[in-house]
Amino acid sequence: MPDAALYPRFVEPRLAEALEDSPAVLIHGPRQCGKTTLARTSEVSRGYPYVSFDDDALRAAAAEDPAGFVAGLPEQVVLDEVQRAPAIFGAMKLAIDRRRTPGRFPLTGSSQVLLLPALADSLAGRLETLRLHPLAQCELERRPPDFLDALFGGGFTFEQRERLGKGLAELIVAGGYPAALTRPPGRRRANWYRDYLDALVQRDVRDLARIGKLDALPRLLALAAARTAQLFNVSDLAAPFQLSRPTIRDYVTLLERVFLLERLPPWHTNRLSRLVKTPKLHVADTGLAAALLGADTAALVANRSLRGQLLETFVFQELRRQANWHEAPTAFFHFRDKDGVEVDLVLDRGAGTIAGVEVKASGTVTASDFRGLRKLAGAAGARFAGGVVLYDGETSVSFGDGLHAVPVSRLWAKPPREDVSARRAEVPPVELDPPAAEGLRRERQR
Fold it and tell me: What is the pTM of this model?
């Protein structure tokens, strides 16, 4: 049965490094994504005593006498859900300053704790943070990925693999929450996601903000799920509610703070002046989005438009999860100009390089699918490392100029080890225009 403890978390080495030299390390991310399991089973913190501030008595004691509470803690201790006990941050600062021992306080938080002024002021310079997401596909496969290295290093070679088809829809609907994956697909798993959202709204959201219409938040999140991977439009989100646009904007920010929504900013450059500057909105997990929309595998197979939206979000979240433990820091954007030319994902490694990822739900690729990537390449100039169109097909093939069509399963599955040279003469199941044919010719000559 899937469980966070049964699957590798590829961010764990980063946590071990942080605990070796930082007095406090915060693992933050959504509830039920595996933060507590990671904190308690890490190579460094395994066996530490454990305190959870979901316990009403412990939370009350910490609020009443934070200095005494921290003084009574073991020398090294895991503190779970610290956003619920912000009063202890000042006392933790004093404890760390008296004895600056690495790895004293592994912390977990289910909201963006760094936005709390008490934490920002108290633990600045004493705290390292790590983001934990629900399980990535490569973690479920127990296979470290190399997609980002291939993307930035031009490492996509000609290969063929089986098309996912219906299996891709199943992965999208399943999502990545460990507890949800223990449920059978269908109604039972969807019920877990809906119950999860109700509990989150009643507990964490209520703690963060005293709002009068808590029942609006699940409805707003469902509306956002229907618009995932689209440009963020407050008016569209506010239309079904008797609430002002500023209120809806505040609610979206609140859902971001508990890691349920994410705004993807636009990429921009001085070389192009007619760029759309509106962010895109993404739901943080496609399993949750599918449950909110009442969409099962069959619904996604039948509804191409919805499948395309959720696939784009699925790819974005998979790449975000992989980038989380990669050595090279990676920022994510989208690219769109006022003529509608776009790239779904732009990955930026700072002053070094950028790469683009376009997502397509169908099983064929043509030269027109690379229009946005070619425009991005022109705008980025020498910084452009390469780009891919991820599609539900069978063949990885070059389209020239550092551009490739790549099956979406390549995100988490490395190229097969067997020699594929014997199959290179086969006609790939994609429509090859002249640039693609030239790329394939080059691959065959290698």
Answer: 0.88
Residue among 112, 54, 53, 39 nearest 284 (CA): 112
β pairing state of 395-400 and 159-160: antiparallel
Tokens describing residue 263 = 């705004």
Predicted local confidence at residue 205, as pLDDT: 78
Residue that the structure tokens 């690495």 belong to: 102
Provide the pairing of β-strand 403-407 with 395-400: antiparallel
Domains of the chain: 4-131 (3.40.50.300), 137-445 (no CATH)
Q: How many residues does the chain have?
A: 446
Average confidence score pLDDT of the chain = 87
CA-nearest of 182, 141, 106, 186 to 321 is: 141
Query: CB atoms < 10 A from the CB of 274, how many?
Result: 8
Q: Please give the Cα distance from 227 to 214 (Å, whole number).
A: 21
AA letter at 49: P
Distance CA 295, CA 170 (A): 11
Structure token pair of residue 334:
């989208």
For the segment 222-261, what is each residue's pLDDT rounded down to a tens digit? 999 999 999 999 999 998 888 889 989 988 998 999 999 9
What span, in angstroms and rounded, lies between the C-alpha atoms of 121 and 144?
37
Taking CA atoms, 46 is separated from 30, 77, 85, 169, 282, in Å, by 22, 10, 23, 37, 35
**What is the spatial distance between Cα 281 and Cα 263, in angstroms, rounded to a whole number?**
5
Task: State how far the Cα of 195 lies from the Cα of 201, in Å rounded to an integer.
Answer: 10
Tokens found for residue 75: 């020398």
Q: How far apart are CA 220 and CA 198, in angstroms?
A: 13
Q: How many helices (H) and strands (E) does the chain have?
A: 20, 15
Q: Which of 149, 151, 155, 162 is nearest to 446 (CA)?
A: 155
User: What is residue 86's DSSP assignment?
Assistant: T
Q: Read off the DSSP letter of residue 265.
A: P
**Nearest residue to 63 via CA among 106, 120, 105, 118:** 118
Q: Cβ(387)–Cβ(376) under 8 Å?
A: yes
Type of residue at 401: D
> CB burial class (10 A; 0-12, 13-18, 19+) of residue 250?
middle
How much is the pLDDT for 423?
35
- Enumerate residues 6+ apart whose C-beta is below 8 A from 9: 34, 38, 132, 139
Give the distance from CA 446 to its chain's centroid: 36
CA–CA distance, 69 with 105 (Å, rounded to integer): 14
